[in-house]
Amino acid sequence: MKNEKQKYLERHIKKADLELRNIAFPNSKRNFQNDSKTKYVIEYKEGCLGYYRASTNTIAVDPKYFKNMYRHKYNKDLISTLQHEMIHKYIDYNIDSSILVYWNDNSPAFLSILAYFNNRGCNIYANYKYDKIFKRYNKSIYNLAITCKTFMELQIKLIQLKNQTKEFFYSKLRIEEDTIISYIPTYDGESYISSAKLIKQRIINEVNGKTQFLEVYIVNLSAEFNIEDAEDRAYIFDFICSEEGIESEGEYEEIDDYVIKTKSLKMA
What we know:
Largest sheet: 6 strands, mixed
Structural class: alpha+beta
Strand content: 15-25%
Shape: elongated
């Protein structure tokens, strides 16, 4: 039998979803969060009002929302938190579910969709710094979010930007003497500026006494990265992936046939 907290949560889930659906899909009966398998839980996590965990398809909200459940029929802050997490989930399931982590708080996909809903009557929380940086450096996609006629128009554009981002970094694969160097972009980070780190240097081939290495860099993007601005994306890439931008940390550690070293790259 459902307890009172679960009933209260479910009522807010329906309300939060209905508001998003009426804006995004006004002529449809489908739910915005069109997945009955999503698990909603009440759970404390330090520093968070809620979270979306892709690996378990879980949306969690903070227990504080249930201390005074019946003061008002609906708690606007709880609805805002649920909508915030529902948008994470929507991007993960409908726009991109790869290592790019396009649904993270600092990505242009998440911030532009928040702008879309908030400009149409919602009041969904966004990280102030991410939002400010996004609006400054990604004006084109922000303006589209504000002015586009349909939600699908924005979604199609975000898919295009996602593909551009992946193609840009994958095109940077190069060979230097005996080393293959590749770059993997992701928004899976909490920094306000883009950075990169060398995550793996591995011997992949030995022929006639010659050794070939593979170096893989994870490039942690943030809200200031503008894939549509050729000059901006080239500047950011050239800086964070250059020797001048590297600050080495730690020591080499032998693990079987791997040689792993982490490097932090910071903007000046």
